[in-house]
């Protein structure tokens, strides 16, 4: 099995991702060959599966310090291994393949804690990150080696362990002719700046779908703002936006990363306490994402020729229109224009990172994370 895993040549790899929105699991089955700028990636199958309400509620409790406990984390770690395997099997079916066709699996898991800056732990300043979704369960179900725990190596070298997408962004989207900004609109929005002759720069800009989804779930019986219709019916409150934009996170220089610890339940509670109506509040949160992305691109992007977006947020036309207005005259495209499904990009990322792990390549980017050197990202579990 190890001989097959480490041999050169193309590999069939399943990539699995679940983001900070806690909305579900994406799985992409790809054929990937080469390394670095010579990578070629062909998507063979893709499946996205929302979490059912019981699993989502359990995860929502798990990520909050006040409602989590070690038994719940342990149980969900095993439970998610099975859930990830289910989605991988459906992506394989979409590709017309059996699990035996897999050379490798790359699984990000579900982030339940991310502490990129030191906090006291038993008397010692400590940084940590935790993604659950048992790779052993996944390997046993699929009968294939699994590379997981992609963030720990960079954190151990003093980095932020996020974002991880810039390795794929640089390999597939860099141009010798122009600067580009790759934008991912997931639970958190993050941007990768690719300028000819310069190291990649990437960081989390602030909240995206995580806050929008939380507000919609609290204010309606809907899981998210489908089609951006709620935001489209409202008007952003400029007074509230001014207060929100004063958050020190936005002015902090890269490297930086954030997540539910900063833009989670407490943040949503503060927005709800504003007293705005549903439509105006969701419109305000939508404008917050667009303006913080635009400000970050202008400050750190070096005048990119275009912004290329991916992630669940590209399916929100109100968010995309608000973003286009905020970034004008810089055009906003999606990765679909370059042959990659915007919904599948992050799952493809973890297939690529697993492939490069098998190639023996250090995929950590110190210019992005601030680590002392390039990290070897991922740990192997055999079936």
Top keywords for this entry?
single chain, 383 residues, alpha/beta, seven-stranded mixed β-sheet, five-stranded mixed β-sheet, 16 helices
SSE arrangement:
Elements: H1 2-6, E1 11-18, E2 24-33, E3 40-50, H2 53-62, H3 70-95, E4 104-121, E5 124-132, H4 135-142, E6 146-148, H5 152-156, H6 166-173, E7 180-185, E8 188-194, E9 201-207, H7 209-219, H8 229-232, H9 238-245, H10 248-251, H11 260-263, H12 265-272, H13 278-300, E10 306-310, H14 317-327, E11 332-334, H15 345-359, H16 366-369, E12 379-381
Parallel strand pairs: 1-4, 4-6, 7-10, 10-11
Antiparallel strand pairs: 1-2, 2-3, 4-5, 6-12, 7-8, 8-9
Please explain how this structure is put together.
With 383 residues, the chain is α/β, with parallel strands linked by helices. Helix content is 40%, strand content 23%. The chain is built from 16 helices and twelve strands. The chain has helices at residues 2-6, 53-62, 70-95, 135-142, 152-156, 166-173, 209-219, 229-232, 238-245, 248-251, 260-263, 265-272, 278-300, 317-327, 345-359, 366-369; strands spanning 11-18, 24-33, 40-50, 104-121, 124-132, 146-148, 180-185, 188-194, 201-207, 306-310, 332-334, 379-381. Strands 1, 2, 3, 4, 5, 6 and 12 form a seven-stranded mixed β-sheet that branches. The protein is globular. The relative contact order is 0.17.
